[in-house]
Amino acid sequence: MHLIPYILRYTSLSEKNVENTVALLNKDCTIPFISRYRKERTGNLDEVQIGEIVKYKEQFEALEKRKAVIIKAVEEQGSLTPELQAKFQNCTDLTSLEDLYLPFKKSKKTKAETARKNGLEPLAKIIMAQHNDEIEFMASKYLSKDVVNEDDALEGARHIISEWINERTDIRNQLRNQLERHALIVTKVVKTQKEDEKAQKFRDYFDWSEPLSRCPSHRFLAIMRAEKEGFIRVKIEIDDDRALEAMERRIIKSNNACAEQIEMAIADAYKRLLLPSLSNELLKSAKEKADTAAIQVFSKNLKQLLLGAPLGEKRILAIDPGFRTGCKVVCLDEQGDLKHNETIYPHPPQKDSSGAIKKISSLVDAYKIEAIAIGNGTASRETEQLVKRIPFKKPIEVFVVSEAGASIYSASKIAREEFPNYDVTVRGAVSIGRRLADPLAELVKIDAKSIGVGQYQHDVDQTQLKSSLDTVVESCVNSVGVNINTASVPLLSYVSGIGPKLAENIVTYRNENGAFGSREQIKKVPRLGGKAFEQSAGFLRIKDGENPLDDSAVHPESYDIVKRMVKDQGVPLTEIVGNKSALQRIDLKSYCTDTIGIPTLKDILSELEKPGLDRREKAKVFTFNQNIREITDLHQGQLLPGIVNNITNFGCFVDIGIKESGLIHISNLSDTFVKDVNEHVSLHQQVVVKVLDVDVKRKRIQLALHK
What we know:
The protein starts with a helix and ends with a strand. Strand 7, helix 17 (about 380-390) and strand 8 form a beta-alpha-beta unit. By secondary structure, it is an alpha/beta fold. The strands form four sheets. It has a five-stranded mixed β-sheet, with helices on both faces. The protein contains 29 helices and 15 strands. Helix 1 (about 5-10) packs across helix 5 (about 45-75), helix 9 crosses helix 15 (about 255-305) and helix 12 (about 170-180) crosses helix 15.
């Protein structure tokens, strides 16, 4: 089995495009670089398609690595034949490979191994031949000090037969098929835990049963969490009689005393070996599928959050609200640098609202503030109402900003390095303000799973989760581009080809030598070689630099083509940039080369038309219903403004300005069937919702999307 055919089995891509993409990956090219700057090589594959190639390439490499380990182990046992080696080599998935290896990894303590040591394997072979009707007489020939009677001999022989049955690939696949099609996931409450307060959120699963194939990912993960926390027990059930009959039809070929022994061995193999093993395998597979589905939801949400609307380079006053401890206020300049911080106490118990109003008003004037950001946590609504009472000398936009993960950032190593002389409250307020200016630049500093836009993110495979979320962050950062003269180390580390160490080197060089004046100067950064420059240069932007192209997604390797275009048009580069009519006159076909074709040339023209354009929407002001302060203020039929703050497979959650978020179940998103929640709402989208039901005791709010 070779890599390219393996990838082609799972994708509908062309062989040539896969070969070229794999070749680029083997040269340490990144997904963003390949999708953006090697379109001619890949046949214009996008990041998702290249990501699929990467996934199956890694799967193939893991399979080949496991094959090598198994072949070596079997060879060391002295059991490897050319035929067996070929079978191992020809396996195309881990399940069939492990099935093939099963007879060679027996524990020495099995019942079958004990029976073999007692000399009962010949008897087992006689029984399996199914020709002899004098089985009791045959068993008497195998008595010894360890096998005291015929029943012991037959039992030992059955243990050996059970093991043979367990190792048969056809039997395992037959039972796998039945489990995949008909298995039920069944739960029972642990009686001693039934009244536990923490168990109540899982009470739907105290006595639950449904076909595993129809159990949605979020419910499966909830069940697995409940079992992990000790509130329920989970098992897999199928029709035992049906499974046993299918096995008997495949194995038993006679109607004599041997058949009776084999029937008993089949029942033993099924109950003791096959069903436990394959049930665990099925649960593991279901867990992997549920993990994948949950991670996909998280990844979609994270992408929407990272690409959220930035306010841009503005002077921002940010407030991290609170009651007893007060509201932490910080003033930031256009670059997000901290200029001032202090604490105000407008809410109970101090209630110094007049002092707070005076202080905010004077800070707005003193630091020429253009916008105010208020965290959406405790006392957010009260703080927003206070700020909106202030008669500023000029219009000031007020935004409520998500605090999700801000506390994680404020206590992190990154925050301590950024603000070594300030405590966590100041750092948290700064993070809130910076999120308004540029969500992407600020959120990359936080461990993505701490941002709180997923479902069961702590229950899924953490390695897979981190890999997927890192890919999302990398994709978002590179799709927007990064200003190399203002970017933090965490932001730079996600740029194609850079990584944490080079990001530190870039910032150190910038601090020692001042702002970069050109992309060419990037090559002077220590340890940033030709490969790293090739992979990163197109994603690094230099504002107001020597060359206008340095503030665009045009890669330096294409600068010569742009020079030719400019020369042929007879106008300076500065006059052609942004000049749509001049750009439309360019005949792209005359600039095609062996390596650069129409797709890349179209990208170049698009960049020349609007260089450095940030394709994200701009931030919009939003106001909750001021009459809704807590869940008891809600009643059926109300129409309320809200912001989507989490998306799951079963619907989305909406912040309506109180502590509890409301759920729009997937069935209440539209009058028609909804296949994908993301087709109807997006994270941080401003929506109008209708209140359907309010359960004050359980703090649950059911909403519908109002069209």
